[in-house]
Amino acid sequence: MIKKSNNKSNNKSDRRVNKSHSFSGIDSFNALGDRAKKFVKDVNERARPKKGAKVKRTKIAILPLLGFEVAVATVLDKKKFEIIPLDITEKNLTEDYGQELFGEWCYPLKLTVAMIEKAIVKDHVKKFIGYNINICRYPLVMGDMTKWVKKDFEYYPVMFKEIGWSTDSCIDIFRELKKAIPGFSFMEATKKAPIALKRSLLAGELTNFYFKHLPLVSNPLFVKQDFKKTTREFILAEGVEESEKVAKAFMERVEKQVVRKKPKFKFLLSGDVSVIVLDFPIFDLDVFLAKNEIELVRPGFPPTVYHLRYANNGKKAKEIISKVLSHKTHKTEVSQHHVIESSTIYQILEGIDRGVDGIIFIKPNMCAPCENVSYILKEVKSFGLPIVEITYDEHQGVNGIITRLEAFINIVSETKNRKMACSQNKSS
């Protein structure tokens, strides 16, 4: 006969311990299952982003060309990608970055390499979407940007089959994005091609409005800063309607600052493509001219192959280039190797048709096609307009350029006054 123990524990903790070890086999299995379920639930809760928490996005950069940036941003998933802005005009770029670039390369290439390396080092960008216009050798080199930037990054250049904006050019961009972005749906992107095209064309209208109104406002520098912020908002806007709102708001702000009806002069900016489609890296050329009440006429994106072949000014440009570059014993046939020369002369002829008063021709050092254009401009007297040529590189001082521009403004003013006097004499 087993005697019952009269020793009862007064320790509550002991009783809890004994109770915890008194599970039956089924109870222990169920308890273990509950614990496993709780463990899985906790893991999922930790993995799931909390409400209001920012999801880490991949940083991506697009080479700065407003229409191109807009087209790419139209089909990027903003929840997955953070678009980092690039600025080729940032000071001291080539002093701190782009040191792997060597040899006789032009300053725009050095700036582009330094700009990309800075974005990798400082902004931690890992993926770049670039473009290849195929009109000079430095965009061709950009197809192998890893040759110059010794960092961990991915670079995807988009090759434009035809210079200019169209639905087909947008689709070409999306086809290249398929290679750059995992899980990118090309079919879904093509449905947005009309939206991308409308936004890109609207970006062109916004840029034209900016340059047309800059010399009419009281504070051009303030308007330029506002324009940079606006273009950033425009790139990130969703759809055509939101893009139109951003553009309209900017235009309304600028119109409130207009203090004069029209500029004194109009100058055509020609030459280096990077200066025309981006900005002059030495100083604020547009602001300087605007303070002198001068409208800077930018050709925008280079003319299409169709325009160079079949438009009247395209044919004229071809004739001028062939005539000037031909020798007595050899005739120069204008081909695809003369795209920069053809584009520049075409833009000058277009500027003359738009009634410009003078031409600013900007060329970087070490640019052979621009040297050809410089030779053509000196030989051809039929343009009938004052022309100033500005050569620049990383060693170029601002004061020298400003002095030349001030002298050029005086020449244009005197030329215009003489023409007005002659026309008045004829009429009288």
Description:
There is one protein chain. By secondary structure, the protein is an alpha/beta fold. The radius of gyration is 31 Å and the shape is globular. The protein has two domains: 58-196, Rossmann fold (3-Layer(aba) Sandwich); 263-427, Rossmann fold (3-Layer(aba) Sandwich). Helix 17 links the parallel strand 7 (358-364) and strand 8 (387-392). It has helices at 12-20, 25-47, 66-75, 93-96, 107-123, 137-141, 167-180, 186-191, 193-213, 220-236, 239-255, 273-277, 285-291, 305-310, 312-325, 339-353, 368-379, 398-427; strands at 58-62, 81-84, 127-132, 154-159, 265-271, 294-297, 358-364, 387-392. It has a four-stranded parallel sheet with strand order 2-1-3-4, with helices on both faces. It starts with 11 loop residues before the first helix and ends with a helix.
Give keywords.
about 425 residues, Rossmann fold, about 10% strand, alpha/beta, four-stranded parallel beta sheet, 18 helices
Short note summarizing the structure:
This protein has 18 helices and eight strands. It has 428 residues and is α/β, with parallel strands linked by helices. Strand 3, helix 6 and strand 4 form a beta-alpha-beta unit.
Chart the SSEs and their pairings:
Elements: H1 12-20, H2 25-47, E1 58-62, H3 66-75, E2 81-84, H4 93-96, H5 107-123, E3 127-132, H6 137-141, E4 154-159, H7 167-180, H8 186-191, H9 193-213, H10 220-236, H11 239-255, E5 265-271, H12 273-277, H13 285-291, E6 294-297, H14 305-310, H15 312-325, H16 339-353, E7 358-364, H17 368-379, E8 387-392, H18 398-427
Helix pairs in contact: 3-9, 3-10, 7-9, 9-11, 10-11, 15-16, 15-17, 16-17
